[in-house]
Design a protein that fits this description.
Number of strands: 0
Radius of gyration: 13 Å
Number of helices: 2
Strand content: under 5%
Distance between the termini: 30 Å
Helix content: 40-55%
Order of helices and strands: HH
C-alpha cells in the first residue's frame, strides 16, 4: 500500500467553493479532486515520476 502524507492547504474562499463544486460534480472529495488536478498537472509537465502515477486513486478517467 502506498504511504499517504497530509499537508495543510489554505486558499481563498471563492477558490475553495469552486473546487468543492467541481469535486461534487465528479463525485470526488475535495482532497481527491486536489490530488487529481495535481497529478494531471505534474504528469503533463513531465515532473511526475512513473512510480508516483501508479497505485490506488490513480483511475482518473471520468465517463462523459
Amino acid at each position: 500500500m502506498t504511504e499517504r502524507r497530509s499537508f495543510l492547504f489554505r486558499g481563498n474562499p471563492d477558490l475553495l467553493d469552486a473546487l468543492r463544486r467541481w469535486a461534487d460534480d465528479e463525485l470526488r472529495s475535495v482532497n481527491g479532486q486536489l490530488e487529481f488536478i495535481l497529478r494531471h498537472a505534474l504528469r503533463d509537465s513531465g515532473r511526475l515520476p512513473k512510480k508516483a502515477d501508479e497505485g490506488p486513486g490513480t483511475t482518473d478517467q471520468v465517463e462523459t
